[in-house]
Amino acid sequence: MARQLRVLLTSFVALLVVCSWALSTGKKIVKSGDDLPRFAYPVKGPASGMVAGEDAAFHAFAAKVRSDLDAILSGYDIGDKATMRALLNEKLELQMLAGEYDAALRTVDQLHGEQEKPSAKLVVGIYERAWLQAAIEAKSTTGPAFEQSFGKHVSDAINPLPWDVVQDDVKLLYAQAKVYTATFAIADARTDLDPVVERSGALDNHQAAQLLFDRYGVQILVPIGAPLVDALKPYIAAHAVVKPDIWAAREVTLGTADKTTPVLVAIWDSGVDVSLYPDQVFTDPHPTASGDHGLAYDEKGNPTKGCLHPLTAEQEKIYPGFREQVKGFLDLENGIDSPDADAVQKKFKTLSTDQLHEVFAAQKFVIHYLHGTHCAGIAVRGNAAARLVVVRFNDNLSDLAFPPTEEWARRLAADFQEISDYYKRRHVRVVNMSWSDNVPEFETWLSRQGGGTDPVERKKKAEALYAIWKNAIETAIRNAPDTLFVAAAGNSDSNAGFGGDIPASLHLPNLITVGAVNQAGDETGFTSYGDTVVVHADGYNVESYVPGGARLRISGTSMATPQVANLAAKLFALDPQLTPPEVIDLIRRGATTSEDGRRHLIDEKRSVELMREQAKR
Question: How does residue 333 score in pLDDT terms, banded at 50, 70 and 90?
Answer without folding.
Answer: low
